[in-house]
Amino acid sequence: MQEKITADRWKILQGSLAEAGEALKLLPDQEGVVRLRIEGETAKMAGVQWSSDKWLLVDMLADMDSVVSIQFVFYRKGEVIAPEESNHMLSYRLIPLRRMKAAARLEELASRRYYLDMLLGGVLEGHASGRPAAVEEMDAMELIVSSPYGDRFSSLALYDVYLTDALPDMTVEGGPMVDEFGQWRQKDWDTKIHSEEELITYLKEEYKAALESPGYPEGWSRWGGWLGKRFEPTGFFRTHHDGRRWWLVDPDGYAFFSNGMCYGSRMGVYGFTDRRESLFSWLPGLDDPAYKDAWTTADRIPEFAKRNGPGAGSDRRMFNFARANMIRAFGSDGWWEAWLTINAARLKSWGFNTIGVGVNNYEDENAAEYLEKAQIPFVYTLKKFPRTNVRIFRDFPDVYSKAFAEQAQDFARSQLGGLVGNPYLIGYFVNNEPEWKVPYINLAERVFAHPERLDSKTALIGWLKEEYGNIEAVNARWGRSFKSFEDMYLPIERLDAGTEEAGEDFAKLHALLVEKYITVLKAALSSVDPEHLNLGMRYAGAGPREMAGGEHQDVFSFNHYSPSAAEALEAAGAYMDVPVIIGEWHIGGEKSMLAHGLWFSHTQEERAKACEFYMQGAMANRNCVGIHYFEMNDQPLLGRFDGENMAHGAIDVCNRPYKELIEHFKSTAAKMYELCDGQAPPTETTGEAIRRK
Prior knowledge:
The chain has 693 residues and is of the alpha+beta class. It is built from 14 helices and 32 strands. The strands form 8 sheets. Strands 2, 5, 6, 8, 9, 11 and 12 form a 7-stranded antiparallel β-sheet that branches. Strands 1, 3, 4, 7, 10 and 13 form a 6-stranded antiparallel β-sheet that branches. The chain starts with a strand and ends with a strand. α1 packs parallel to α3 (321-350) and α5 (402-416) packs across α9 (500-528).
């Protein structure tokens, strides 16, 4: 059953109406935005009955030169959203230039997760933001469309908008966008490959050059450490403060800065092909033996399984054009050895001494063999983070429960068994950008809003008893009227918002939960593997809320996308004097893709200078012991497992490095340890770095 939202119900807040015919055609405003609004009674916006079990579906075509951003923002009458929090919003990135359907599952307003289902067809990625809510509570909604990465947004055509109980056929209509090499068919640029002969000739030459590569820069140890400064060797990586700054120390005792490349061992990135087959100029048959290594299914990608559940995606076909290109040059039996040889030589000669996150991210990669032969230090991201059956918010477990402690021990034993004793392993990231943190929600507030009698709720009430002694003191601080501490087990929303003192207490309670989250895992992991470094949670950002319990980790890690890391590193160091690794950063490149990176430059030379500025500023910071570039490969034109499709790689889909970027990588690496040791000043040349949302 479909319940249509008719064109006359929309108020145009940004943009203008071009025509109303088969489709409602809209033009963006000067800011490049189309923004529409519907209103009505609660749960009956635009005269339509809304319920959480329905889908909101938009049949549309966006004429723009980049990935499409569409947001569904919901409003509840009288509600005030705190400045640090997000609106109730479901947002998606879509394929442009083709008629397609975007579908939002309305029950996702409950915000049980941040990463939404990868729907078939033209939807690339989806996110849920805001405090848990239900569409039945809403009386207004805005639909916002923009071009976050492009320069051209000509028009938006809305063919239909309706609520439905079930999804229709989501296949994308239109001709090919991806050529036989995985490149954007309609675009041209200086380094684009135009023939199979050109591709094969280039890759063969790269293989020959790799066989003659000199390895790490002069003055570096076999691990990539600095021969100019030595400490006590232990046979494993460790941390050390020399009185001026923090260092990592390699197994032979040499000072070490982890200059890493995320997914550095991976040849290419898989992208979805199902229900968008017409968008590809060429795909081999699933039974073609020559290209068997270039096909997979989504369930074999651990990050997809983590976000969507075990077994999800077993029927979702994915293809890796970068692998296919290597197969073209070296055959189905020789491509992997050629890739290992080329890649290991490149990383060392470019000055990267660490393979960053992702060495274990595809099940069909020979990760163990690669690491043994390449002999490059690496970090490891642990999978299957412990989750109690009842969770506080999204993936945040009931951390004070016995079940969490037991699961932590099982997690440590299952994840670390194959890593114990490996001297090339620097350490492990315990998690990766946990969803409970994006965007910020006070976890303690969620504990007291939870309907169940959580062990964490008992622990927080215990803290309040110890801190204030009686319920009257808590009532006075929070502006409440509890008769006893037992009353606090009843679910109550927004206990943190009553008074300023309540906000202060909830900040402390939030920190207690995060500290427990860290320390239980730390104890379990250390009991199994005391030799390797605990590199922390690899948060999506850093600040006092994230750094709670940071002293219990060997290294605090966070990802930081910005033109410079200096300010964030200084703030982290001022809050807590601990060694820090930036687990992800990048500046994307020119317009060979639908998206160019979270920050990007219009030219490769400007991009190279911007990256050099970022790297050298981080290297000069006294707390920073590593930065890991994200990532080795450009992502697929039509998106990877979660829809990301950015041109931010060190190499493109045809395995060609961006030469200007590489030259600046190499020149920075040549003086990396002098920068770390304060013997050389970081560059003041910034380069162009642009942020679009």
